[in-house]
Amino acid sequence: MGDLAGVVGKLPYLAGLGVDGLWLNPFYASPGHDHGYDVADHCAVDPAYGSLEGFDELVATAHGHGIRVILDVVPNHASIAHPWFAAALAAGPGSPQRGRFHFADGRGPDGNEPPNNWRSIFGGPAWTRISEPDGTPGQWYLHTFAAEQPDWNWTHADVPALFERVLSFWLDRGVDGFRVDVAQGLHKKPGLPDHPDAAADEATGDPVNPNAWNQPAVHQVWRSWRRLVEDYTAADGRDRLLIGEVGLTDPAAVADYTRPGELHHTFCFPFAHAHFDADTYRQVITTALAHHPDGVAWVANNHDLPRAVTRHTPTPSDSDGDGDGEELPAGADPAQIGLARARAAAALMLALPGAVYLYQGEELGLPDVADLPVTVLKDPMYHRSGGTRPGRDGCRVPLPWTTSPDHHHGFSPPATTTPAWLPQPPTWADLAADTQHHTTTSTLNLYRQALALRRTIPDLATTTLTLHTDTPPGLLALTRGTHLTTYTNTTHHPIPTPHPHPGQPILTTHPTPHPTDTIPPNTTVWYHHDDETPA
Question: Rounded to two decimals, what is the model's pTM?
Answer without folding.
Answer: 0.96
